[in-house]
Amino acid sequence: MNFSSLYSSISFIKPEITISITLILLVVFDLIFQKKKTIIPIIALLGLFISGIFVINELYRSGFAFSLGNKRFGMVTIDSFGSYFKLLVIVTSILIVFFSYSSSEIQKVKDRLGEYYVLLFGMILGMLFLISSSDLILIYLSMELLSLSSYVLAGFTKLRDRNSEASLKYLIFGAVSSGTMLFGISLIYGLLGSTNLYDINIALRALNVDWFTFYFAVLLMFVGIGYKISAVPFHFWTPDVYEGAPISITAFLSVASKAAGFAFLIRILKTALVSGVEPDGTWQMIHSFDWKTLIAILSVLTMTLGNFTALWQNNLKRMLAYSSVAHAGYLLLGVAVLSDIGVESVLIYFAFYMLMNIGSFYIVMLIANKTGSEDINDYNGMGYATPFLGVSFAIFLVSLIGLPPTAGFIGKLYVFIALINSKMVILAVIAVINSVVSLYYYIRVLKHMFLTKSEKPLEKFKISLPNKVFVLVLVIPVLVLGIYFTPVVDLAKSCITILGF
Amino acid sequence: MEHISLQHFLVVSSILFSLGIYAVVTRKNAILVLMGIELILNAANINFVAFSRYGNFGLSGEITALFVIILAAAEAAIALAIVLNIYKTFSNVNVDEINKLKE
Question: pLDDT digits over A480-493, tens only?
Fold first, then answer.
């Protein structure tokens, strides 16, 4: 390897390098400032902002980094699709830093705040590499980096039994599914002689592969992907971990971790398993295997099970966990279209999903800070005790249902347009029916907040100004983007380039 | 060495993988579940090394196996810490009895 190519490769991964440096700085500052931990979130924010600027600067840059020998393809692929997801992850992380700052759960373990941010940055680094890597080994390593940090964070506060239980369940499910994925990778390596996605694609076109073994190996790999995006047969950890983990981590897992998983799924379909792209943007899959039906079945199962189980949940965190399973189903519909329009709808949906999901978790956190409970019966009359939070929560929930004039409606609309464009009307109908089902459990929360009287009189509680500003920062885009959504749509349209053939 | 072929290695690794999955599904003790996970990872490792040796793919398989060994060690460290934490709160490590989060 010559050094000039190494240097040019390094220029491709500036955001990741920034995150790594910040991680080391956080460890050092945690050791220096034993007493005063206020500087740590500031350093974390600075690192995230700088790396965000790098991502924005390179939004439309594309190329391969860290190629071996004379090969054109590298272990890391930089393209606008990946940059969009990286931007999403970094914006989510910035929101989560503010989120953790006002969470009383995290503030109770203040002396370990340094560790918390170090582990958080481990997760972010894993996500950024998972989004852009195009080599199965690097994918496995970054997925493990992401998972190992999140196992610890799920049980970080150790305040209640449920924290440690959440981390054990997350660990067992995660380790088994990533081990299964590794076994699948080893079979693919044996069949095709490479772990690079582009080499795999070339080998699949040229060689006469033993297709049964190949699809078996790919299905083993899908266990790992399904676990990351909590798609249905692999979703069992989701409700328990989301309920048991500290709520800032729950919000982070439900948005950023899922985004990284989806980026990985779409990249693997588009680079390794595609044989050509038609002029209208539809992908032709190699060996004409029916990926469309497989992913469509998975997505229908995911959203139906998520929505129907959410109906019975009384714990708000658990309900939002099932709702995030259901949203993974809607997002999988966008992938099932297997075309550029489908990818575009996934990108649009994710931007809106980030705003509304973090917003609703934030409000659940603010109320839990005061009342110490996430049970739906403790929300009785809450809409009058704190009208501001009540109205904002209503807006977030309406957006999660997908009703106009909120951003959630636009997200669903684009997924449905993509489905109807590729003549998958039945799936669109099933998704609409699912949205109607979801109406019940979202509205039920509002019923408890505004229509049910509380048994004991609730005293009005005040929300501090920073918390109000944070909620407004999320509520206003949800409303405005519901009407004026062109900026997000334009950004998503310009970011569907995935480097491939 | 002539009479040991790639198939032998693949049979061993498949048996290890199945045993690992079996251990994860049936064992109740969290430590034994973790041992099952180690079996799964080592099955994949055997595959990597065997394919690399018999398929003439260079050294990439062996290097991957090294990475996986390091990761398995890191995972074991974190897993044991979490199990220790479970033992402190529940005073047992029985996976079946740790179910406070079910409704």
Answer: 999 999 999 999 99
